[in-house]
Request: fold
Amino acid sequence: MIGFLARRLLSALPVLLVVSLVSFVIIAIVPGDVTAEIAGADSTEAQRAEIRERLGLDKPMVEQALRWYGRLLQGDLGQSYLLNRPVTEAVLERLPVTLSLAGLALVMAVALGVLLGILAAIRHGTWLDQGSMSLALFGLSIPDFWFGLILIVVFSVQLGWLPTGGYVPASESIVGWARSMTLPALALAITQMGVVARMTRASMLEVMGEDYIRTARAKGMRRHVVIFKHALRNALIPIVTVVGVMTGVLLGGAVVIESVFSLPGVGRLIIGAIQRRDYPIIQGGLLITAATFVFVNILVDLAYGWLDPRVRNDG
Amino acid sequence: MLRTSRLRLIRRAFLAAAAGAFIGLSAWTAMAQTAGGDLVFVQNSNPPSLDAMVTTSQASRNITMNMYETLFGFSEDIRPIPILAKSVDISPDGKTYRIPLREGVKFHNGKEMKAEDVKASLDRYKKVGGTQTMLAPVESIDVTGPYEVTLRLSEPTPTFMESFASPRAPAVIIPAEEAAKEPNKISFIGTGPYKFVEYVPDSHVKLERFKDYVPNEDYKDIDGFGGKKTAYLDTITFRVIPEAGAAVAALETGEVQVLEQIPVPTARRLASNPDIKTYENMPWAFLTFIMNMKAAPTDNVKFREAVALALNDEEVMAIATEGLFNLYHGWMYEGSTYDAGDIGKEFYNVHDAERAKALLKEAGYNGEPFSLLTDSNIPEHGKAAVVIAEQLKAVGINAVVNQVDWPTALKIRLQDSGWNGWTLAMGIEPYLGPAALISTLTGAAPHFRANDPELDALYKELITTDGVDGRKAVFAKIQKRLYEFFGIVKVGETGLMQAARANVQGFKPFRFPRLYNVWLEKK
Amino acid sequence: MTAEADADTASLRREIARARRRGWMRFLKRLFSHRSFQVGFALFSVIVLLALFADLVAPYDPNKNDYRNLLAPPSMLHLFGTDGFGRDIFSRVIHGTRISLGIGISVVVMTGLFGVVLGMLAGYVRWLDNALMRLMDGLMAFPGVLLAIALAAALGPSALNAVIALTITFTPRTARIVRSSVLVIRELPYVEAALAVGAGHARIIVRYILANALSPLIVQLTFVFAVSILAEAILSFLGVGPPPPAPSLGNIIAEGRSYLQDASWIAFFPGMAIAAAVLGLNLMGDGLRDVTDPRLASQRGAG
Reply:
């Protein structure tokens, strides 16, 4: 197990290297720089040059990159140009928002999706099956940010049940956190809910067709026991494998949902940093986001090995 | 007027105080102010900085002007009045300004404001201040008493007090130890009625009432940026909501109390809502269309005139402002002190396609692309650019919209090539008066890239002319000149539609939300 | 070679060609009798036709401003109402569909091209495999939306940038699918046999591997098409798609978001248009997948 973990962590390094290299390429080709933001729109060229020198922006890109990697090896992601604080601190402060959003959306997508999938599978061929699958397909087809706008109009404006946006930390109020997260998470979850529902149905149908289930049924075991004890457990294994991919999709999708619901997440931090050319934040934010994604995938692999012992051997 | 002697300034303060007393009294008799409560104010973008003196951003000013104060500021009728200063004594040669300070004023850290703090703050402004021309004439700043500083100017500058009182990037007073720090590295400590609690970018800035605030007793009520300020609310939260729709929904549900800006159609709908009150903040800004005089085809004055004649300013304004606008050709607001009358009127809002096409022919225009620079951050800029592009296409100009983010736009417009037209709303400059407005069109980096020597000379004449009447005459010449070379087109005047919950009392639309002197009516 | 033998080979060739055609016909017949595919095909065809003949169908110029007619609600004159510029939403949505489909198909072509080349290289050239796949992993860990925003900041927002950003986002997964097909196919006896008799690599790649990797690739690309349309809307919504006044569907929704309550039609109709196009593609993809490989579970490729 330890060997497996070490190998997986090691294989994450090239991934993170690629991510950081891509961000350097982007920074190198983006026009404009942060100096106009720091010194004001009508600052003089001399003032801006002075700032550029202070920040080391006058050095060649390769040298800047090497310095950045050097500091990274000591665990330092540098200092934000504009927020007046370390990058790590600024990003980690935002991470709970994005993780809350993506996490809750994951839970919703899996819970609702599995529910719909089971419903469709056990009522295979009925209107319930068709209804559930239409819902799943609809979820797959509508733009999530647009769905978010509709949710705001219906649940915040018309019904007044939930806030239109903003974030309440769970440490401040659990109820407030849940209220502030429900609509954004639902909007983000809708697509993946469709994916999960369709997968659950397909693998449930497959498992229910297998011999041991039929045997159990023939032996007179009650239907719901068979379904929930045997079929579901096996049907869920493929779901676990896509959780890793889904996490990536949700983390990426969180960017636009954060903007629709004005949540102070990592995505908006990075967008703001791109627009204002706060390079250290762009670098660090992307690296930490990618690292989160890689880390979740390792966790998923571990969970998968635990659920399905066959995998552990060739892991 | 600027050679204002101490006596005149004080008299003006008294007049203002008398007027304020009247307003204050009537408000007081109508309903009693109640202290306490929390108010959420919504704006659509993050403040780039809370280090007030380094930024010219409106998003920052909204917040910082509730936290910090300046020595002088503008009154309601846009004249310099003392705020942290007691008065000003200007020497007969116009080069020495002796400024006694109010005593007993406390910083948020409990320390009393002294002359050293003022000197340190102004010295810092000279280095990092956001309006570099403001203190340029000042040669030295000396402490001439525990509560007195003296500024020495290199030459008499009649417009100095006006520019010193400017809120564009305000010369706020901060403790001397903070003034030693680099831009954006200070602790946010001021002397204002509210003090800083926290800033979570993309979320909110929170302020709380400064219990030891020392109000300026020379006044009876607020007056422009100064006057007697009273903090009623316990806390103010400035929330950042980029989505106008979401912000309006939050106001309707009562989650938030004041919106900096709401869409005009929404204001029409909300008119029938008894829980919400809308406010027209008019006029708010000039919407301008600036051309690059160094890049073809806009390097040709005939071509630029053709553009000006092709424009249907009414259509641009109606769409860009959603209906809250004023059509006026003048380069100062209609009826204001420096309004130059009908000069240039014949070129405004004419949309004469025939004359425009004839001029294009005369200019030898041959379908070269016209790159129309605009940004995605300020909706009016982008909308105006789209409408202008369609209008230019209609007379045969090959206009292409280039919409980029704001920093990129600021970068591109500083280049001599790569853009031909640029949409810009000027909010604070026309408010501040002719010198502030024209300074953006002259000097080292005029908006339209190339210097117009005649305009440069007129600007110099403007800032060295003593007396309002003399300057009015100079400004009339400036307006005439602007309508001769068409480096910049005034499209119209925009307003700002604001809204608050009905229980928000004492809110008067202004250049920034004065949330002191605002209280929440208890039901 | 005798003339007789020549005739024999020729007739054999004709026979093979006929069998192929019959196979194709059978495939198409099965495809078009699949219900999801039927519905999806019908829906998508309507949308494609509307997009192709946008100039004929749209009653107004999609960029014609009319400031006397701002935010007009849906009526007989303006089926979907007008926006804040007084432009006809119905005409804009139809032209917007053309932009969305254009970007979608470009992404499909580019993704298909890069996916096949990279997937083939990784699956066929052993020593390249590891490096290529690590690169793909890295790109997959990069949130596509942020990449597009960064690209737009670098190169200015445009349809081309949206295509580049989406291609970079979707290529890794497509390459993976091609690679895994290649890995399976190259171990098959007849491919090994072909290698043994010294058939050229190019011939093997085209004849066996590409032909066999084609069906999972087509299914994947159908979903890439669907997801590209959704992603384009997101990019335009965030202001990094085709610049205004281009009536891309995401742009229209973005313009409508300030008027969610006052003029909800602006954001509503383009959203529905996106949903219809994506639904059509998803249904077609489902049908294709069922017909080409019924064993593939209901999994979607790129998300």
